[in-house]
Prior knowledge:
GTP-binding, 12-stranded mixed β-sheet, 13 helices, globular, two-stranded antiparallel sheet, Elp3/MiaA/NifB-like_rSAM, EC 4.6.1.17, TIM Barrel
Amino acid sequence: xxxxxxxxxxxxxxxxxxxxxxxxxxxxxxxxxxxxxxxxxxxxxxxxxxxxxxxxxxxxxxxxxxxxxxxxxxxxxxxxxxxxxxxxxxxxxxxxxxxxxxxxxxxxxxxxxxxxxxxxxxxxxxxxxxxxxxxxxxxxxxxxxxxxxxxxxxxxxxxxxxxxxxxxxxxxxxxxxxxxxxxxxxxxxxxxxxxxxxxxxxxxxxxxxxxxxxxxxxxxxxxxxxxxxxxxxxxxxxxxxxxxxxxxxxxxxxxxxxxxxxxxxxxxxxxxxxxxxxxxxxxxxxxxxxxxxxxxxxxxxxxxxxxxxxxxxxxxxxxxxxxxxxxxxxxxxxxxxxxxxxxxxxxxxxxxxxxxxxxxxxxxxxxxxxxxxxxxxxxxxxxxxxxxxxxxxxxx
Length: 396
């Protein structure tokens, strides 16, 4: 089967790229360690790195009722079955790491994708093998037609997961209806448990609203409720174990994200708290922390703590990338198509769509872009110097 051969190729490729993640010293419960020096512009620090382990795939892969077409397979054999769709560039917060302090120029509304355009492109991707879609922004819940979009997407044959990443400000009131409309998975962003810090980071009030949204999601049966936390030195790194404590009594998956560079967010390596350091802090207070076996396409390193309902994860984009197993593509609110979060290259799908391109012509454009995807993104210091759009434009 083509799918079996492609997955086998992906697994081989992932293992070949283990040199990019770390030197594997020993395998086991997440304690793989190696030493590595990072040196840039006079900065030299010694860090412990923790190797990525790839889950074993079954020898016989069940036949998929939505096989992946060549449109979604890059030149390295990676199958892209996960599409992130940014519904809007607007947001009701002004987070420092997402938006420059002076704000951003938003794309005029006529140049943004309409609901029908989003649905047509989504249907094309799903028909070609995409099985998971995540709705992002900006803040996706500020779109007045968010419920209709969810309902229409969830009814598309072949889509197995409809997820959303949200800041949670207005989610609590919208979530019951969104669940009825087919929203199956949630990531809620929360970078601090201290209201004053929240107001400083987001330049807005609403900390209690985010907590209400997390609790509402739990009450509605979302399990786990994923909570995204961007860790920044000197701001919230002292709260890491406080966040972990939330997993004791609630089915939440706390996901610690390394601070990443985007235009206007004044990224500085001194603000970066590397995965190795975060791991050490957590395991020191929670010694039963154990590594779970992750799927090859997983972006996070996942852990469980004895006696805790929830889980703890680390997203290590900067110090230990996971490009070898990447299965994600991005459709931006303005209709641009992006094959890598950190890659500056984009191609418009909106323009040919509005010029009358049929599905086959759109597939050719998408396939050409996917085939140009690189093996991995640049190192973190190079990324900091590479022109890329603000995160508010790209989508979370």
